[in-house]
Automatic annotation (TrEMBL):
<dbReference type="GO" id="GO:0051301">
    <property type="term" value="P:cell division"/>
</dbReference>
<dbReference type="Pfam" id="PF03033">
    <property type="entry name" value="Glyco_transf_28"/>
</dbReference>
<dbReference type="GO" id="GO:0051991">
    <property type="term" value="F:UDP-N-acetyl-D-glucosamine:N-acetylmuramoyl-L-alanyl-D-glutamyl-meso-2,6-diaminopimelyl-D-alanyl-D-alanine-diphosphoundecaprenol 4-beta-N-acetylglucosaminlytransferase activity"/>
</dbReference>
<feature type="binding site">
    <location>
        <position position="133"/>
    </location>
    <ligand>
        <name>UDP-N-acetyl-alpha-D-glucosamine</name>
    </ligand>
</feature>
<feature type="binding site">
    <location>
        <position position="174"/>
    </location>
    <ligand>
        <name>UDP-N-acetyl-alpha-D-glucosamine</name>
    </ligand>
</feature>
<dbReference type="GO" id="GO:0050511">
    <property type="term" value="F:undecaprenyldiphospho-muramoylpentapeptide beta-N-acetylglucosaminyltransferase activity"/>
</dbReference>
<dbReference type="GO" id="GO:0071555">
    <property type="term" value="P:cell wall organization"/>
</dbReference>
<keyword id="KW-1003">Cell membrane</keyword>
<dbReference type="InterPro" id="IPR004276">
    <property type="entry name" value="GlycoTrans_28_N"/>
</dbReference>
<keyword id="KW-0472">Membrane</keyword>
<dbReference type="GO" id="GO:0008360">
    <property type="term" value="P:regulation of cell shape"/>
</dbReference>
<dbReference type="Pfam" id="PF04101">
    <property type="entry name" value="Glyco_tran_28_C"/>
</dbReference>
<feature type="binding site">
    <location>
        <position position="258"/>
    </location>
    <ligand>
        <name>UDP-N-acetyl-alpha-D-glucosamine</name>
    </ligand>
</feature>
<dbReference type="GO" id="GO:0005975">
    <property type="term" value="P:carbohydrate metabolic process"/>
</dbReference>
<dbReference type="InterPro" id="IPR006009">
    <property type="entry name" value="GlcNAc_MurG"/>
</dbReference>
<keyword id="KW-0808">Transferase</keyword>
<keyword id="KW-0328">Glycosyltransferase</keyword>
């Protein structure tokens, strides 16, 4: 028998994940909950295929895994297979609810959030959602019809959740980066100092960054002699990408992964990156000038919409993925090298958009909803 509503534990369960962009804002909220009220228990529910299956155990939190099929973009055959598997996902979610006995469920998006949050809502358990992107994904769009509260990272996202309380709070950022932000102030490089560029394409790297950006930098010739590049390329690609910098006049360090992102952000004068919501949130909190290159195949093209919102505010520069390797990135870079004031202005505007208190605001509301 399932617990009655009066027997619910003081436990917040973060549901969903799949990617770091979904998962780590949830981790940031859990860190804030533990600081505000250590008596509140926390746990996670996710998919065995998602990043949470590896990341959450390392962080020491309880984790329940539910095998939920991917439907969005799966095609007709994928939908058919997924619909056959959905009943099993429902039973898995029911079992997880029984074992965890949540007092509050918070969806961070991703497929595993769907059945668990939906069934928790049907049981009368308070539920909320966190939407990181300017345009919600399929799971959170559906859950917006049944949850009690939404937290969004972009003001315009409120229009997707008209029938529930919806707070514009920003996207929660990990504590290690918040600690850095407290004492960090960006300074554009002075004339004559090396110019440091950080290139990150997500945990798996970015194909266009790996295959095209090295040639772009080599094309700068002696104009690039003062550049220092740190290029995160993903697993098994170091030799190939490093070879692309063979004719580069500056210095390039190519690595599979960057474990200490706080140190990497602090090191760089300019960031070239994708436009995932979590990356944007981190960059804004720190106030770093960035060139955003949206991943062209993101669901609902949400990365383009994320980057457009930042570019329209003058807090970053956006170029299309198709422009990488066409010389536009290097032309932009050449202009920025000659105009450090523009870098300082980008950093200043980015910092004004940062929301370092997002995790604390959401955590406080979660505690109130228990």
């Amino acid at each position: 028998m399932w617990p009655f509503s009066g027997e619910r534990a003081r436990r917040v369960v973060i549901a969903g994940g799949g990617t770091g962009g979904h998962l780590f804002p949830g981790v940031a909220v859990v860190e804030a909950i533990e600081q505000l009220d250590p008596s509140v228990d926390v746990a996670f529910v996710g998919s065995p295929r998602g990043i949470e299956a590896r990341a959450i155990p390392k962080l020491g939190y309880d984790l329940e895994l539910i095998d939920v099929p991917m439907l969005n973009g799966a095609g007709a055959a994928g939908w058919a297979r997924g619909l056959v598997q959905l009943p099993g996902s429902g039973f898995g979610a029911m079992g997880a609810i029984k074992r965890l006995n949540p007092g509050l469920v918070v969806s961070v998006g991703g497929y595993a959030a769907g059945p668990f949050t939906m069934l928790a809502s049907m049981r009368g358990i308070p539920c909320a959602l966190m939407e990181q992107n300017s345009t919600p994904g399929m799971t959170n769009r559906l859950l917006g019809k049944v949850v009690d509260q939404a937290f969004v990272s972009f003001e315009k996202t409120r229009e997707f959740f008209p029938n529930i309380p919806c707070d514009f709070v920003g996207n929660p950022v990990r504590k290690s980066l918040l600690d850095l932000a407290e004492g960090f102030e960006y300074e554009a490089p002075e004339e004559g100092r090396e110019f440091r560029i950080l290139i990150i394409g997500g945990s798996g790297g970015a194909a266009s960054f790996n295959s095209k950006l090295p040639a772009d930098f080599c094309a700068l010739g002696e104009q690039g002699a003062n550049l220092r590049i740190r290029h995160q390329c993903g697993r098994g690609r170091v030799a190939e990408v490093d070879g692309g910098y063979s004719d580069f006049a500056g210095e390039a360090e190519v690595v599979e992964f960057i474990d200490d992102m706080a140190e990497a952000y602090k090191w760089c004068d300019l960031l070239i990156c994708r436009a995932g919501a979590s990356t944007i949130a981190e960059v804004l909190v720190l106030g770093i000038p960035a060139i955003y290159v949206p991943f062209p195949h993101a669901a609902d093209d949400h990365q383009t919409k994320n980057a457009q919102a930042i570019a329209e505010a003058g807090a970053g520069i956006m170029i299309a993925d198709s422009d990488v390797g066409q010389g536009r990135a290097t032309r932009l870079l050449a202009g920025l090298l000659q105009n450090p004031i523009s870098l300082q202005n980008l950093a200043r505007k980015a910092r004004t958009l940062g929301r370092p208190d997002a995790a604390t605001i959401i955590a406080q509301k979660c505690i109130e909803m228990l």
